[in-house]
Amino acid sequence: MGRHLRRAHADGSDAEARAAMMVAATQAGIAFSNSSVALVHGMSRPIGAHFQVAHGLSNAMLLVAVTEFSISAATARYADCARALGLADSGHDDGAAARRLVAGLTDLCRDLQVPTPREYGIDHEAWHRLIPVMAQQALASGSPANNPRVPSAEDIEQLYTSIYC
To answer: How far apart, in whole angstroms, are the C-alpha atoms of residue 122 and residue 163?
Structure first.
């Protein structure tokens, strides 16, 4: 998982890895155009607006927690993702495969040095004070309604709290 992403991160001059990342980004854009985004993106927007964190980075900050939150509503789909990424195989039941996806995403974020909001330098008091506002803004974006497990405002607040670390 992340073969090209890890390579492009490690060596920005790796033309093959960067080309593969460009293709992947294009495919993601096509996918977004034919469907929509979900909870990660809805929660990411307020982080960027309030704390000037780049959208891709704030998505990465949220990815593991939101994936773990969402698994119970679409275990087979997340298991399929794990299998497609080579994190699980047909010998893993869906629950085990989905857990391997979370572990793989955790490893990827660690390898790419994705910071937590605290590590990024976001003030603890400001973060926690804005959590209720950010949760309402995330819900208002409409994106959380597209998530396999549709969150409440309280769920979103708990997710924001959990990623601060």
So the answer is: 12
